[in-house]
Design brief:
The structure is a homotetramer. By secondary structure, the first copy, chain A, is α/β, with parallel strands linked by helices. Chain A has helices at 19-29, 63-76, 101-111, 130-135, 150-163, 180-185, 206-213, 248-271; strands at residues 6-14, 33-42, 47-55, 80-85, 91-96, 118-124, 140-142, 168-171, 190-194, 217-224, 234-241, 275-278, 281-284.
Amino acid sequence: MSTKNTAILLISCPDRKGLVAAIANFLYRHNANILHADQHQDAELGVFLMRVEWDLQDFDLSLEDFETAFLPIAQEFNMTWRLAHSSHRPRMAIFVSRYDHCLADLLYRYRAGELNCDIPIIISNHPDTHALAETYRIPFQHIAIHKDGKEEAETTQLAILRRLHIDFIVLARYMQVLSGEFIRHYPNRIINIHHSFLPAFHGAKPYHRAFERGVKLIGATSHYVTEVLDDGPIIEQDVTRVSHRDDLDDLVRRGADLEKIVLSRAVRLHIEHRVLLYANKTVVFD
Amino acid sequence: MSTKNTAILLISCPDRKGLVAAIANFLYRHNANILHADQHQDAELGVFLMRVEWDLQDFDLSLEDFETAFLPIAQEFNMTWRLAHSSHRPRMAIFVSRYDHCLADLLYRYRAGELNCDIPIIISNHPDTHALAETYRIPFQHIAIHKDGKEEAETTQLAILRRLHIDFIVLARYMQVLSGEFIRHYPNRIINIHHSFLPAFHGAKPYHRAFERGVKLIGATSHYVTEVLDDGPIIEQDVTRVSHRDDLDDLVRRGADLEKIVLSRAVRLHIEHRVLLYANKTVVFD
Amino acid sequence: MSTKNTAILLISCPDRKGLVAAIANFLYRHNANILHADQHQDAELGVFLMRVEWDLQDFDLSLEDFETAFLPIAQEFNMTWRLAHSSHRPRMAIFVSRYDHCLADLLYRYRAGELNCDIPIIISNHPDTHALAETYRIPFQHIAIHKDGKEEAETTQLAILRRLHIDFIVLARYMQVLSGEFIRHYPNRIINIHHSFLPAFHGAKPYHRAFERGVKLIGATSHYVTEVLDDGPIIEQDVTRVSHRDDLDDLVRRGADLEKIVLSRAVRLHIEHRVLLYANKTVVFD
Amino acid sequence: MSTKNTAILLISCPDRKGLVAAIANFLYRHNANILHADQHQDAELGVFLMRVEWDLQDFDLSLEDFETAFLPIAQEFNMTWRLAHSSHRPRMAIFVSRYDHCLADLLYRYRAGELNCDIPIIISNHPDTHALAETYRIPFQHIAIHKDGKEEAETTQLAILRRLHIDFIVLARYMQVLSGEFIRHYPNRIINIHHSFLPAFHGAKPYHRAFERGVKLIGATSHYVTEVLDDGPIIEQDVTRVSHRDDLDDLVRRGADLEKIVLSRAVRLHIEHRVLLYANKTVVFD
C-alpha cells in the first residue's frame, strides 16, 4: 500500500453539464493514467461528488503546480476540492479510556501495514493502556480528566496535537464527551466508534439499553464527531445477531468484535480519502 | 406441517430446583415421546421459561384431562402455563392499508402451507387490496377510518373479530395507530411490522428519516403491539446494507423485502408457539 | 420507473488514457445531462468497463443517429458497446417446474411495477403453475419433457421464444438442464437461480448435501447460464444462518426465501442494464 | 468467566423415553442448581444430545464421586458422556506459519480473559511470530519442516504436546497438512480455520479461486480436523460481501477479519464445552 505512487482528487460541487468532461480532459491533457474513478450525483440536492485516483508515473504536472493549473476549472464549476498524495502518511492521534480492544486492533493493523498512517501519540484519561502503547513503541500521554477540569485537559490535549501536527483523531472507545470548542479545531477529522446501531441507543450505556429492549441484533457505528452527541455523519455500521441466550456480558463481548471491525474500516476509508461529506451524510467510495 | 400430531407445553415461572425433574417425570409417567425441549433461565430475574413438544401417539392423557393432571405441578411451582395442540389452526385476522407486499407474502405462504393457521378475514381502511384477497378467496372487509371516526371503526372491527373467533391479529403495514382500548382486547396477540430497526426511527416515516440520517443499514422489526407506540416486545428483526447509491425509493423497495421476511418469520414463530414473553422481551425457541 | 426517459450506454474495451475524456466530451457535446456514471478498471487484465445513464430531455441526438455519431470513438478505442433506452421494456420468458415460489415472487414484483419488463410467456414442463399464471394473466405453455424427448421439447420452446421476440429467459427453479445448443441461442441471456452458495454444492440436491455436510450458513446464487453446469458468471448471491435446530425441511423453507430475493435482484439488475461481463465474471453497477 | 464454579455434563446417546427425566432426577437428587440446559434430538437418526450446566455451590456430589453415582444411568441409556469443570482451564497449543493475524487475535483475547484456557506453547514452522509470542510471554518453538522431513517434525511436535499435557490444538493459519498419524493422536481436538466458505474452495489458495470465480461473498470456516482434508465437522462459518471493486488483496484483507472472528468463536465454543459431535456434524449449544 505504501509503495503506491498515486494522486487522489476529491471534488464536491453543484451538478452541471460538462463537469466530467472538464475534469477528464484536464487529466488526459496532463497524461494521467486513471486507476479509479467514482462519482455520485444527488439529483434532489443537485450535488456532484467525485473521487479520482491516477498513477503519477506519467503525469506531467508536479503536485505543487497542480493547484494553479486546476484553478480555472475549479472556479468555473464552483468546486470544493482537495488533492491528496498516496505517499503522504496522515498523522493520527488515538484517544482511549480503559477498554483497549479497539486500540489493540488499530495498533495491530498499523504494524501489519494495513493502515497507511503515522501514529505520533496515544492520549488517555487512564494509565491502563500505557503498556500496550509501549509494545508497539507509540508515545503515550496520560491526561487525567478531573472533575471540573475538562477544559484544562482539553487545552493540554490540543497543545500536544498541534505540536505533533496531528491530521485527525480517532476516539477508540474514549469515554469522555469532547467540547464544541475542541471539536471545532478538527471539523470532520475526529472519528468515533459508538457501540450501537445509531441512531438507536445514542448516548450512554447502549448495550444495557439494547439488552433491556430485547433487540435481536446489536450494532456498532463509526461516525465523524460533530457538536451534537452521536449525530455526526455515519461512515460505517454493522450488526450481529443476538438472542435471549446472550446475556449482557455476551452483548458486550460480541459488540466489541463489531466495534473493532467497524472502527478500523472507517479509519481505513478516511486514510484512503474515500469518504466525502454532504448534508450531514457520507458518500463512501469503496 | 399440518399432519403433525403433537402437543406443546409453554411454561413460565420462578426458577427453582426440581422444576425440570417435575416436568420431565410428569411427561415420562404419561408416556410422552418428547420431540423438542427448550428452556431458558434468566439468572438475574430468577425466571424459568420452557417449551416442550411431544408426540401424542403414545401419550396416555387426553388433552382434556391434561389440566387436571398437571395442576398440582403447576401450582407447586407457581407456573403460568398453556397447552397447545399442533393440529389446532389458530385464526388470524390481517389488517392492511394500501401497501400490499406484506399481505401478498403472507397469503402466498398461507396457500403454500407454510403458515399453519386459518385466515377468516382481511380488514382494511382502503379498498385497494380487495382483489388480492379475492384471488386467495379470503373474505375482505373495508372499514374506512373517517376523521374522528376511529372509535366507531374499532367498534366495528372488534365486533367482526369476536364474531369470527379471531385468535390473533397481524398488522401487515396497517397505517393506523390502534387505541389502547382495542389493544387490551388482544394482549400480546397483535403482531406489527415496523419498517425500521427499532428502536431507531420509531414513529412515522422511518425510511425518510433513515435516508436523511445517512445510515448504512436499514432494518425491519416485528413486535407485539402494546399501548406504547413501537415499544412492544420484539419478535424478529433484520437489516440489509444500503449505500449512498440508494435513493429513498431504493430504501423503500429494499426495505419492503425485509418487511416481508421479518413479518412472516414472526407470524410463523407465533403460530408454532415458539415465542414466550417476560420483562417486555421475547424468548424465541426456534 | 417506467416513466424515466433515459439512455444507458454500456462500454467494455481495453483500458487506455483518454477514454473517459472521449466519452465525456461526446456526451457533453450532445448536451447529455448525466444522471449516473460508473466505471471499473481491471488493472491486471487491462480492461475498462463503463455504464453511463443520461436524461434524454435535452440530448440532441436521436437514438437512431447515436450509432453513426458514436462510431468513430467506439472504433478508436476498440469498444464493445451497446445502447439501451429505459423506456424499452425487455421481453422476459420464465421457465419453471413444480416449485412456484420464485415464479410467484417475480409475478408479484412484475405487477407491482418493480420489474420494468414484459412477460409474454411462462413455459413449464409441468402443468402445476398454470393457475398462478392465469391469476396474473400471463400466457402459460405446458411443454412436457419426455424421456429422450428433450431435443424435441427444446425445439418447441425455441420456436415459441423466437415467435414472441423474447430478449432473455429466467429459470425460476426450472429443474431441467438446458442443452448447449439451446444455450447458444441466448448467450448471457439466461438467468438461473441455484439453491446453494456456488461453487459449493453445484449440481443436484444442494440442500440435502448442505444438511449432510453440516454447514452453518445456506445460500442461493443467481448466475448466467453457460454450457458448463452451474459455472456461469455470478450475478448475485446471499446466505442465511442455520443451525442444528434446522432440519432438512427448514433448510428448504429458509432457502426458498433466499432464492426469491436473490433471483429477483438479479433479474432487476439485468433489466436495468447494470450487469457487465468479462473473464466469466460480472461487474454489477448498482 | 474464570470465577464461575460450575459443572458441565455432555451426553450423547440413542433417543429414548425417560432420558430427560432420569437426568433431571439425578441432578435434583444431588441438589444441583441448573443454570443452562440444552438438548437436541435428531429424529431421523434417533440421537439425543444434551449439555447441562449447574452451579456446584449446593451440589452434594464431589466431581470425583460423580462417575460412580452417574454410572447406572449412563449404562441404562447407553450414554457416551463426559463431565467438565468450569474452573479447569484446558491446555491449548497453537500452530502457526507466517500469517499472524489469527495468532495475534487469539493472544489478545487470551490476555483479555475471553478464552478460559492456558497456552503452554506456540509451535511454528517459521520463526516469524517469535516476537509476538514473547510479547505475550508464551513459550515459542520453531520446528522447521524440511522437504521429506514432515514425519520427523511431527514426531518432535507430538513429543512436545505430550510433555506439556496439551488438551487441544488450534491451527491458526498453519499452512502444513497434518498426517493421519498425527491427527489420530488428537481426534476432534484439532481446530482449523480454513479461509473459505467450505465446502467451496477446499484445498489450496481459496482466495485466488474465489476471485477467479467472481463470487459475491467470501467466507471462513472453522472445523475439527479429520483425515480427509477440509472435510471435518464444521464448528462455525461466516461470510462478508465483496464486489468487483475488491481485488485479490482486498479479498485477502477482508477475509483475514473473518478468519479471526470465526476461529476465535470456534475456540471459545470448544473451551466452553458447547460443541457436540455426531454424523460428522456439530451441534453447537450457544
